[in-house]
């Protein structure tokens, strides 16, 4: 039996390779995602394995698709960047 946190989650524990492979098809990962991708541009992003593992764990914890977390992170980064430029700073 696998061990996890007291609440039954896997937070704080590295996922095994099989767990990461199952991420794509998990029902949890599919709860929060874009409603319609028809007007979106598709792209490919490469991650170092350690960063991808952290992202996959965060997606499971957040009940979201990895792509949704990436869209949210980029949108937040752009918001901060634009706010910094308005204040006269260049990030």
Description of the structure:
- The chain is mainly alpha-helical.
- The protein has one domain.
- 46% of the residues lie in helices and 0% in strands.
- It starts with 16 loop residues before the first helix and ends in a 5-residue tail after the last helix.
- The mean pLDDT is 78.
Summarize the structure.
By secondary structure, the chain is mainly α. The chain has one domain (17-86). It has helices at 17-23, 49-62, 66-86.
Terminal CA distance reads 48 Å
Total beta-strand segments? 0
Low-confidence stretches: none
Radius of gyration: 16 Å
The residue-averaged pLDDT reads 78
Q: How much of the polypeptide forms β-strand, as a percent range?
A: under 5%
Helical run tally: 3
**Helix share, percent:** 40-55%
Largest sheet composition: none
Q: Which class do the helix and strand fractions yield? A: mainly alpha
Please, how many domains? Answer: 1
SSE order, one letter for each helix or strand: HHH
**Shape, per Cα inertia axes:** extended
């Amino acid at each position: 039996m696998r061990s996890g946190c007291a609440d039954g989650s896997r937070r704080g524990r590295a996922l095994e390779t099989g767990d990461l492979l199952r991420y794509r098809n998990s029902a949890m990962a599919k709860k929060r995602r874009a409603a319609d991708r028809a007007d979106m541009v598709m792209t490919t992003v490469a991650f170092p394995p350690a960063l991808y593992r952290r992202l996959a764990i965060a997606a499971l914890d957040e009940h979201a698709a990895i792509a949704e977390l990436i869209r949210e992170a980029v949108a937040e980064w752009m918001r901060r960047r634009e706010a910094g430029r308005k204040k006269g700073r260049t990030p």
